[in-house]
Amino acid sequence: MDNERRWYEKAGEAGDVVVSTRVRLARNLRDIPFPSRMNAAQRAESERRVRDALFQSNSPIAGDFDFLQIDAMSEQQAGSLVEKHLISPQFAAHGKGRGVLISKDESISIMVNEEDHVRIQVLREGLALCETAETADRIDTLLNESLHFAFDEELGYLTQCPTNLGTGMRASVMLHLPALAERGALSRIVSNLSKLGLVTRGTYGEGTGITGAMVQLSNQITLGLSETEAVENLRNIAKQLVDAERESRAALLGQIRVQDRIARALGVLQTARLLSGEEFMRLSSEVRFGVTAGMLSGIDLADLNALTASVQPATLSAKAGKALSAEERDVLRAETVRKALRGVA
Q1: Which CATH number among 3.30.450.40, 2.30.30.520, 1.10.220.30, 3.30.590.10 corresponds to the domain 2-248?
Q2: Residue 147: which H helix or E strand, with range?
Q3: Does the pLDDT value for residue 203 go beyond 80?
């Protein structure tokens, strides 16, 4: 049964703190202008060549992908892909001339004509930086056999934004840090991490806010470091944050006010008839805390991850097959959550 689940419906290594891992590679075709300077014909050419590089390869993984044209999708369908971290919000908002290749288990997406010609993304549950980077590297090698990505001996991979020069790699982990946030340590940690070449972002990447104590931590430096060094650096820091969060949780769980807050959060989620997305994320953060601490039973982290993915706004509308009003989404979200948490105590 577990093998049939998508990556965002599972829990992996250090899953009590690390929700997911992502590695993204930015690549460009050397004989076509960067996307910001392409005309319609060049966009179509770029898309055709990337598709052919995958589907006409001899690799057995080629048959595992589907190609989706963004401007042929509904706003709800594209929004659902954003919520699953398969495409960026900017990619969904400006879909003309853009497409995405997505593996059937939704762990790999290849955006075509985003900020760069090719954005390879690999996602995994839990802390899995080495495995995720290896998969991204295999996809990169496969595509490069026929696409021949733009590369300079001194600057590395050439990208539209200079901050991506070099490896063109952004590795990140999504962390659930309620205890560190509760103890007021999060802002200090964020400040210190920037000195180590790492950056924190909101739940859905750059420009988004932190909801439900979910923090995205990623490498900031792509030039002067190898991909292996960047991954190892991020992995070491992530493991330190896991230890710090676990220690903080242990200190907090003995407090009756924290136990009460977790119990109240569960009670609201089990009985609410209207539930906004923001309220769900805030309350489910408490429930997740309670589950990982062994205070609550009847549901595991994998089920919580699957529930969180299923009740995001666009995903609810996409499943309904139509645009839902905010109240309709809140009703459907509350119903879905009540059903999922029925046996939790």
Answers
A1: 3.30.590.10
A2: helix 129-147
A3: no
Distance, in Å, from the CA atom of 59 to the CA atom of 304, rounded to the nearest integer, reads: 35
Q: Tokens at residue 172, please? A: 């990140």
Other C-beta atoms lying within 10 Å of the C-beta of residue 176: 22
Type of residue numbered 204: Y
Query: Residue 22 and residue 112: Cα distance in Å, rounded?
Result: 18
- State the burial class of residue 303 (Cβ atoms within 10 Å of its Cβ: 0-12, 13-18, 19+): middle
Residues of the chain with CATH 3.30.590.10: 2-248
Give dist(CA 24, CA 30) in Å, integer: 19
2 pLDDT higher than 50 = no
The rounded Cα 257 to chain-centroid distance in angstroms is 32
Give the span between the Cα atoms of 161 and 222, in whole angstroms. 11
Q: What is the pTM for the complete model shown?
A: 0.92
State pLDDT tens for residues 21-62. 999 999 999 999 999 999 999 999 999 999 999 999 989 999
The size of the chain, in residues, is: 345
DSSP string for 147-173? H-B-EETTTEE--SSGGGTBT-EEEEE
Contacts of 63 (CB under 8 A, 6+ apart): none
